[in-house]
Amino acid sequence: MNAERLMQIILAPVVTEKATQVAEQNQQVAFRVAADATKPEIKAAVELLFKVEVESVQVLNQKGKEKRFGRFIGRRRNERKAYVSLKEGQELDFTEVN
After folding, report:
1. Is 74 helix (H, G, I), strand (E, B) or coil?
2. From CA 37, how far away is CA 59, in angstroms rounded?
3. Would you say residue 43 lies in a domain?
4. How far lies 57's CA from each of 44, 67, 74, 80, 83, in Å?
5. Rounded Cα–Cα distance for residues 76 and 63 (Å)
6. pLDDT tens-digit profile of 73-84?
7. Quick check: 82 and 22 in contact, CB under 8 A?
8. Which family does it belong to (predicted)?
9. Residue 79 sits in a domain of what CATH number?
10. Count of structural domains within the chain
């Protein structure tokens, strides 16, 4: 895994009520990741960017919702999310991204 590829894996943190609740209860952080990202790549990318130790990674594929725009039917894009569990005592700081 080269560093250039790892920098493109994590697209954005997921900031929702559910993601915040999961972060508080389970010490997990949610990220939107590239569609072809694997668990080992996600783990390596988080460790590289945030300088923390990752315990485990859970991934889910979320299908885009069908939405109507007047009489036209469209679709939102599909997303891939990763819930990253950090090791005991580790904390993620978004202000100090490498």
Report:
1. strand
2. 9
3. yes
4. 11, 31, 32, 13, 6
5. 8
6. 999 999 999 999
7. no
8. Belongs to the universal ribosomal protein uL23 family.
9. 3.30.70.330
10. 1
Q: What is the mean pLDDT of residues 4-17?
A: 92
- Domain coverage including residue 28: 3-90
Structure tokens at 76: 């939102």
Write down the pLDDT at residue 98.
60
Q: Is residue 97 part of a domain?
A: no
> Residues 6 or more apart from 84 whose CB is under 8 A from it?
28, 29, 30, 31, 42, 43, 46, 54, 56, 57
Do residues 82 and 45 make contact, with C-beta atoms less than 8 angstroms apart? no
Q: Identify the residue whose tokens are 């988080």.
A: 46
Q: Could you report the per-residue pLDDT of 22-75, keeping only the tens digit for each?
A: 888 888 999 999 999 999 999 999 999 999 999 999 999 999 999 999 999 999
